[in-house]
Amino acid sequence: MSDELNPAVPDSATAEGPETESEETVKQRKNGLYPGVSDELAENMKSGWADTELRDLKPVEQAGHTARRRAALSARFPGERLVIPAGNLKTRSNDTEYPFRAAVEYAYLTGNQTEDGVLVLEPTADGHTETIYLLPRSDRENGEFWLSGQGELWVGRRHSLAESEALYGIPAADVRTLADTLREATGPVRVVRGYDAGIEAALTDKVTAERDEELRVFLSEARLVKDEFEIGELQKAVDSTVRGFEDVVKVLDKAEATSERYIEGTFFLRARVEGNDVGYGSICAAGPHACTLHWVRNDGPVRSGDLLLLDAGVETHTLYTADVTRTLPVNGTYSEIQKKIYDAVYEAQEAGIAAVRPGAKYRDFHDASQRVLAAKLVEWGLVEGPVERVLELGLQRRWTLHGTGHMLGMDVHDCAAARTETYVDGVLEPGMVLTVEPGLYFQADDLTVPEEYRGIGVRIEDDILVTEEGNRNLSAGLPRRSDEVEEWMASLKG
Known about the structure:
- By secondary structure, this protein is an alpha+beta fold.
- It is built from 17 helices and 17 strands.
- The strands form six sheets. Strands 6-5-4-1-7 form a five-stranded mixed β-sheet. The chain has a three-stranded antiparallel β-sheet with strand order 9-10-12, with helices on one face. A three-stranded antiparallel β-sheet has the order 13-16-17.
- Helix 10 (228-250) runs antiparallel to helix 12, helix 13 runs antiparallel to helix 14 (364-379) and helix 14 (364-379) packs across helix 15 (387-393).
- The protein is globular.
- Keywords: Aminopeptidase, Hydrolase, Manganese, Metal-binding, Protease.
- Residues 60-200 form the Aminopeptidase P N-terminal domain.
- One of its GO terms (cellular component) is cytosol.
- It comes from Streptomyces actinomycinicus.
């Protein structure tokens, strides 16, 4: 990674506003190799560049949907100024940053994913005017484009404001002016908190936590029912994820020779080639690591005879993620005890998926899956029945641990800020997408179960769309039944 000058030229929205002429133009890294910029070089860099403005841009695919979403937001909060930031870059270490991922609320309403962006809805007599505040192209007059660590020659070209207007269908303005504008604003204001400290500081005396939470909750509940664009993106995410699982099966021998990291890297390659990223840290849990629900260290051995619990999802370029789990025999064949536990989880998942339909309570699929698992635990003599007693006391949870699913979308645990009465205590509607993912986990140190159970963890997870008629399994491209899994693995290994 190249090391160079880091100017004080502002290249992001700050509470302080633009730099004044009296301030230092260029600020050098402590151990940079150049002491400064000569007047001659600075003048030379201002000229001789071709016009690269893009003038024939078409709107992004979801522009019509984002316009409808903004209209619904406007109708919900008439007469109020609404501020929705994208967020800022976050430091990973010293002067390097994490890859930027825009706030879901902002991307959902705009389709834009660039750092420092802010959507502002200004109230009018009959609704709101909309402005998307963005960083313009890197400035060539003050040298930002080649001197700033976030300049065009360092991290790539930003869209001009005119280009952004064409892409997103929203009037665009320079975000570096926004903090001052907001400080002078009057009337009721709401902001989505937690993404942009500079914007929040400019509004500190104009907002309340309670009112801001109402905005956050509304935007979370707005995503409960997916539109046709979103369903299409989720299917793309799932289809890429299916291919990622196939990739993993084909290289299990290499994972055995190395570690779980080989599995993680293999799936990540598919995610980066076909999408934006993984939607969450991939869980590549072999052997007893499968009993750790969110095992993302992925540094353990992969052994023939053990199970591999792979929980992973590709995130599309528009930030919709899949979330799929399969528990696979590393050598391609389940042992007798592995198959017994796996088939029990499969039966529970079948019951859960069957309970997903419009008009059903959200909790129904969880209750259906848990009933099957509780019955299996009683049948195996691991807990004293009857099943109703086990469920009433929650005794099955020693081995089932987690809920049986969650909403899915731009977040892997989507719509998390929604009110309980509209989410977990709500009713399923066509267009909702959720996971169904029962599991059984017998910890390696659990002395309450026979030794042959210990260290076995099984989860099966699919992404389910609620339809008018019932449901559709978006991830049906991956086999689930134990014999079908074995046949599929054998075919991939050739």
